[in-house]
Amino acid sequence: MAKTRELRRRIKSVENTRQITKTMEMVATSRLKRAQDRVVATRPYAAALTDLIASLYDPALEESFPLLRQLKGEPTRVALVLITSNRGLCGGFNANLIKETRQRIENWEAKGVEVELHCVGRKGAGHFKYLGRALAQERQDIGDRPTVAHATDLVEPLMARFEAGELDTVEVVFAKFNNPLSTPPTILPLLPVRPPADRRIGGSADRRRESAAAEPPTRRTVPNYILRPSAEEIVRRMLPGYVRNGMYRALVETAASEHGARRTAMKNATDNAGEMIDVLRRNFNRARQAQITQEIAEIVGGAEALKG
Amino acid sequence: MNVTVISPERSVYQGDANALVAPAFDGRVGILPRHAPFITLLGDGLLTVREGSETRHIRVRGGFLRVLNDAVDVVAEHAESVEDSDAA
After folding, report:
1. Quick one: which H or E segment has residue A17?
2. Which of A127, A176, A249, B46 is deepest in the core (most CB within 10 A)?
């Protein structure tokens, strides 16, 4: 008797949980759809900008643009920007990003490099504060609909400090959005700006990869553009945009990845709850049956006793 | 010629055009079909795309414009279609 009541209560509670996870799964699915559209929508701009920089890039420009100043030897001061979500219940999503960041920090610090950590999203900030690490910056207001303005906000101070020589390298740890099921934590070297590789023609890019792994990129043969103003001026004006765009895409991809991860986590939770309910219900029925059998046996026993 | 207008957040416009007038950094530039390869920085202002008798206005700011192989890419930092261009 006590056992059936206990089981009924547990079934009820697991059913409630399943209801919640199922709802969260559906919410994540619809948000994922929108976030995914936003990721796709950033691609043409990024491609066009990358193409422009690739067309106009010239190793000689490194001299005049601090943002292009490639590192010689090891850096002394590195800024890491970790992008996590504000909310939990998305499986190992944030944990993976944090793990990647911790490894990166350890790597740098083992080489004696000073690392400052900037956290976007509550989960990452919370973790590193718990560890007692000082955060150079903490942003929790960005949420899952990042805008270019957010990216600009984050990147401008870093760019200014990079140009002033206070930082040697800026890297972003974010969740790359391959597809909703594959969102590996990825490190994006934001600064110094690496000249984009030739990507326009598949054939030449492939050939390039064989021959020029170590060789610095050379100016490509580009159509004879009329440039107004000069190539140098165009690069000067567009480079910050290129950096901003890198950060913006990292934010947008992480937001989409978060929803993908949450959908997967909630789907698993819903499935597990379903399985659990099946088992509990089986146990419940067995207990109920046993109770009935026992009651019949008692009645029959009682009747027998009266007869005798 | 084919015209594409994109901003970091999304593609704003894509279609054919007979003529286009864009606010470049130092004044307005007009692009007609079969223009030579060209890159210029954009300023702040209204981009006008003309196709047949239809005219479309898009407010753009920053970024660049590129003409290559009879295709115009307007890559703006901000781009926004203006709906009631005649009323304005």
Report:
1. helix A2-56
2. A249
Has A119 been annotated as catalytic? Answer: no
Q: Where are the domains of chain A?
A: 2-26+264-307, 28-262
Q: Which CATH number fits domain A28-262: 3.40.50.2000, 3.40.640.10, 3.40.1380.10, 3.90.550.10?
A: 3.40.1380.10
Query: Is the separation of the CB atoms in B76 and B61 below 8 Å?
Result: yes
Pairing of strands B71-75, B64-68: antiparallel
CB pairs under 8 A between A and B: 74
Residue B41: inside a domain, yes or no?
yes
* Chain B positions in Cβ-Cβ contact with residue A42 (cut-off 8 Å): 8-10
- How does pLDDT run along chain A (308 residues), one tens digit per residue? 578 899 999 999 999 999 999 999 999 999 999 999 999 999 999 999 988 888 888 777 777 788 887 777 788 899 999 999 999 899 999 999 999 999 999 999 999 899 999 999 999 999 999 999 989 999 999 888 899 999 999 999 999 999 888 899 999 999 999 999 999 999 999 988 887 664 443 333 333 343 334 444 455 556 788 888 888 888 888 889 999 999 999 999 999 999 999 999 999 999 999 999 999 999 999 999 999 999 999 999 999 999 87
Identify the three-state secondary structure at position A155.
helix
Contact A61, A68 (CB under 8 A): yes
A77 token code pair: 């001061």
Query: In which element (H, E) is residue A289 found?
Result: helix A231-307
Domain A2-26+264-307: homologous superfamily in CATH: ATP synthase, gamma subunit, helix hairpin domain (1.10.287.80)
Q: Give A241's contacts in chain B (Cβ within 8 Å).
A: 62-63, 77
Q: Is this structure's pTM higher than 0.90?
A: no
Given CA atoms A225, A231, A235, A236 in this order, what sign does their dihedral have?
A: negative
* Chain B residues near residue A223 by CB distance under 8 angstroms: 37, 68
- Annotated active-site residue in A54, A67, A79, A90: A90
Closest residue of A to B72, CA-based? A48
- Report which DSSP code applies to A166: S
